[in-house]
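S1.2 Input.
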Amino acid sequence: MISEVFNVDCMEFMKGLPDKCFSIGIADPPYGLDKKSTQGAGKLKNRTLNKHDMTWDVRPPQSFFDELRRMCQHVIIWGGNYFDLGPCRCFVCWDKQQVWPNFSQCEFAWTDYDKPAKHVTISNRGGHIDSVNWHPTAKPVELYTYLLRTFGEPGISVFDPMIGSGSSRIAAYKMGVDYTGCEIDKHYFEKSEERFQSECLGITHLPNGMTETQTKLFEP
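S1.3 Output.
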């Protein structure tokens, strides 16, 4: 089984790969939300994304989606409602069980599968997700497990161009699925590696937070 990640701009990584070389591309790109959405105000100010530097929340160009769809047989893109991706039959609605009215109660994923639309209820609070307070948009491992069980087949390979908190990698590893991921931000890259080592390999103390066996630096 392959589980490898690269501290690199995914656009540089993708352009060197052949067409349809991965079974599924699962992406959670920045949505490019306005300041009111990401910086918040009022009595929930300290619980919002205010705590984090959100300058990276810039909507990716169309070329990102074109490359992802070129090199993956199928794609699942979180926040698809914010991008110009065309009609979608098999969208995924994630019910977050969010009780606060000031926060989104569900999230939309666009897919290119020709299947009925899906709905999944998984809380975005509690368990591991609460411990990933270093990443503002971390999604539960269980959510990616659901996606792989719903859309995956034996022998699939998964590519995540923006691994963020690393939840997709953990889900793939625990299911025995080949996985490749990219993360351009060095801080998130190293933190996600620490999380992977802790949750999947039982390693809690790492020299410089890194290992050679599970992490690779991309060289064009």
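S1.4 Remarks. The helical segments are 10-14, 35-39, 62-71, 128-131, 141-151, 167-174, 186-201.
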